[in-house]
Every structure is written in structure tokens, then in C-alpha cells.
Design brief:
One of its GO terms (molecular function) is FMN binding. The protein is α/β, with parallel strands linked by helices. The chain contains 10 helices and 15 strands. The structure holds flavin mononucleotide.
Length: 369
């Protein structure tokens, strides 16, 4: 990049043992092109297009077990076949000098029996059903099967699924994992008091509601080492009917508790993001959590170039995650560097199964620009 170092977003950053050359991170982006839950060869081109030397990339949400899915064609990392299928994708990112983390995921009740083994109900912290939601294309309605509340003695098995997924991610060659604790999925269903109505040691107090998340963190840390573990959370979001009555206390408690495990990074979604894609004005920000957490802090949600520059310059974050802009601009760091216009993202093709359209066909800047 010609102007490297000229803007704060393009300054180097040492994240644990990883030497990053800039602060622009590829956000985890579900693309629903992994047929049969197996990553496909077209993902090699997709991720390598978005790789820069010393850039950090996070994969799309990747299921930890056969009960973890809630959407068509999302990848997993619980079978040998899936692990093998990830390998050439990881290799391609590494060949270009990228640092690649796998986002490990369980949807919990954001599912229906059609995605579950033997048509069983999805699992959750609760048996409260989710009301039907308009899909992101704005037309279709997603229907959910009322979930089954996990029994206390079943919880260690789910924690173990995350541990095994992390080990599998190492086997596939990833540099680390990001535990998906955001956006109303299983971990969030335990953390948020709008959802969690348990009376055992995993429900009630803030400490109890965060126990499941922290047990997963501990298990994953023990398996692959704290220096390869990050977690993503969205304490302020109420996506998938998963809100909390005191999100700041939740975010702070998690940030402080994570310090005990010495994990690599804490990745939080800005309070202005009401859903995964809807931005609104909001009086809250992530600064208290950024101050409380001792490792690398990553902020996400609604950032553009100027906003990202400001956040890094004011030390409100270490790294900035870009979702939709990076999806539509495979050379986003270069465009930011040169301050060039951006391609517009096409919402209609976010989640279609096409291996090319809306996936690997967004144009790069012309070389002579
Ligand atoms: C197409 C699409 C897929 C997404 N998939 C995921 C996902 O798999 N995991 C996740 O944590 N967030 C996911 N998100 C949320 C993004 O990571 C990001 O937080 C959000 O898009 C807001 O950032 P942006 O304004 O830079 O796009 C997704 C968002 C979009 C638009």
C-alpha cells in the first residue's frame, strides 16, 4: 500500500504474537455458500481476495456441532470432512500473509427442527420460543421451533463441543478462534436476562448468566492457549429478542472476567447496532469496556473510513472490524489508504447460494489508480 502509515487505521499493531500491518479487520460474515455445511472451494477465492499481508480476517460463523445450525448452507467444523475442507482456504489466506481466526458458533433457539438431527427441537437456555422474524431479504419469514431448555447436566457437553471445535480449527490451520457470543445466539441466550429464565447456577444473577460463556472461554483457552482466543459480544443489541436490562453492567462484567483468562482479544459490537445491520443514534459507547479489558479490543458496527480513523486516533479501540464495506470491497484497506470511492454492497446477494455472484465478483480498484 503506497500510503501505508499515513492514517491511523493503517498503522501496525502487535496483537499478542501476531504482527498486524494495519487495523482493518474482516468482520465475520455469514454467506450461506457452504453446501451441506461443508466449506466449498469458492471460499478460497473469496477469503484470499480479502487478505492483505499482516491483515486479520475472521471467518463467517461456523457451527460447532450438528445442533448448532439454523440457516441453510452455513459451514461447520465438527466433522473431519469440514476440517479438511477448511484447510485449502486457510492455506490461501496464509499464502498471502493474512492472520485467520475461525468464528465458532451455536445458534441455540435461532433454529427450527428442520435443521436439527432427527427433527428434534433446538436447544437453548430457555424453552421460550422466538416469534417468527422477517429474514434479512426483507420478504421471507423465518419460523422457529420452540426450543428445549438444556438440563444443567447437559451443559458440559455443549461447552465441550466448543472445545473440540477450537481443536479442529487448529487442525485446519487457523491462527485462532473467535467465540461467537453475540447477536442472540446460544451464548447470548444465556447472558441476556430477556431470554435466560433459568433457576440453576446458569441463570438469575449476572454472574450465573455469564457462567456458560466463561466456561466456554476457559475450555477453549485450556485446549488451544489464551493467545489464540477471542470472543465477540453484543451486550447492547436486542437482535433475535435477546436484550438485556443492564447491558453496560453485562459488558463490563464480561470484559473484567475475561482478564482472568488472559485471552487475546475482546470484540464488541457498537451499541448503535440494533440488529446486525441496522444503525441508529445512541448515547452509549464501548469505551468503558475498552478500558476494562486488558488485551486487544476490536470494535465493530457501522464504521466507515473516517469513523474508524477517529476511533483508533482517539484510542477508543485497537482494531476496527468492517462488515458490509469489506464484503463489497475486497481491497478495502487499499481503498482506505488511497481514500478512493467504495463499491456499494448489494444486500440481495448477501445470502444467496451462488458461488460467484455477490461473492467474488465485486471489483478491485484498477491497478493504475
Ligand atoms: C451478510 C452479513 C452476515 C453476517 N454474518 C455474521 C456472522 O456470521 N457472525 C457475526 O458475528 N456477525 C455477522 N454479521 C454482523 C457483522 O459482522 C457486523 O457486525 C455488521 O455487519 C455491522 O458491521 P458493518 O456496519 O461494518 O457492516 C453479519 C452481517 C452481515 C451484513
Amino acid at each position: 500500500m503506497t500510503g501505508e502509515g499515513s492514517i491511523p487505521l493503517l498503522t501496525p499493531y502487535q496483537m499478542g504474537k501476531f504482527q498486524l500491518s494495519h487495523r482493518i479487520v474482516l468482520a465475520p460474515l455469514t454467506r450461506q455458500r457452504s453446501y451441506g455445511n461443508v466449506p466449498q472451494p469458492h471460499a478460497i477465492l473469496y477469503y484470499s481476495q480479502r487478505t492483505t499481508k499482516g491483515g486479520l480476517l475472521i471467518t463467517e460463523a461456523t457451527g460447532v456441532s450438528d445442533t448448532a445450525q439454523g440457516y441453510p448452507h452455513t459451514p461447520g467444523i465438527w466433522t473431519k470432512e469440514q476440517v479438511e475442507a477448511w484447510k485449502p482456504i486457510v492455506d490461501a489466506v496464509h499464502a498471502k500473509g493474512g492472520i485467520f481466526f475461525c468464528q465458532i458458533w451455536h445458534v441455540g433457539r435461532v433454529s427450527n427442527s428442520g435443521f436439527q438431527p432427527n427433527g428434534r427441537p433446538p436447544i437453548s437456555s430457555t424453552n421460550k420460543a422466538l416469534t417468527p422474524q422477517i429474514r434479512s431479504n426483507g420478504i421471507d419469514v423465518a419460523e422457529f421451533t420452540p426450543p428445549r431448555r438444556l438440563r444443567t447436566e447437559e451443559i458440559p457437553q455443549i461447552v465441550n463441543d466448543f472445545r473440540v471445535a477450537a481443536r479442529n480449527a487448529m487442525e485446519a490451520g487457523f491462527d485462532g478462534v473467535e467465540i461467537h457470543g453475540a447477536h442472540g445466539y446460544l451464548i447470548d441466550q444465556f447472558m441476556k436476562d430477556q431470554v435466560n429464565d433459568r433457576t440453576d447456577q446458569y441463570g438469575g444473577s449476572l454472574e450465573n448468566r455469564c457462567r456458560f460463556a466463561l466456561e466456554i472461554v476457559e475450555a477453549v483457552v485450556n485446549e488451544i492457549g489464551a493467545d489464540r482466543v477471542g470472543i465477540r459480544m453484543s451486550p447492547f443489541a436486542n437482535y433475535m429478542e435477546s436484550g438485556d436490562s443492564d447491558p453496560k453492567a453485562l459488558g463490563l462484567y464480561m470484559a473484567e472476567s475475561l482478564n482472568k483468562y488472559g485471552i487475546l482479544y475482546c470484540h464488541m459490537v457498537e451499541p448503535r447496532m440494533k440488529t446486525v445491520g441496522e444503525k441508529s443514534e445512541c448515547p452509549h459507547n464501548l469505551v468503558p469496556m475498552r478500558k476494562a479489558f486488558k488485551g486487544t479490543f476490536i470494535s465493530a458496527g457501522g464504521y466507515d473510513r473516517e469513523d474508524g480513523i477517529k476511533a483508533v486516533a482517539e484510542n477508543r479501540t485497537d482494531l476496527v472490524c468492517y462488515g458490509r464495506l469489506f464484503l463489497a470491497n475486497p481491497d478495502l484497506p487499499r481503498r482506505f489508504d488511497l481514500n478512493k470511492p467504495l463499491n456499494k454492497y448489494i444486500r440481495e446477494t448477501f445470502y444467496i447460494p451462488d458461488p460467484v455472484i455477490g461473492y467474488t465478483d465485486y471489483p478491485f480498484l484498477e491497478e493504475d489508480n
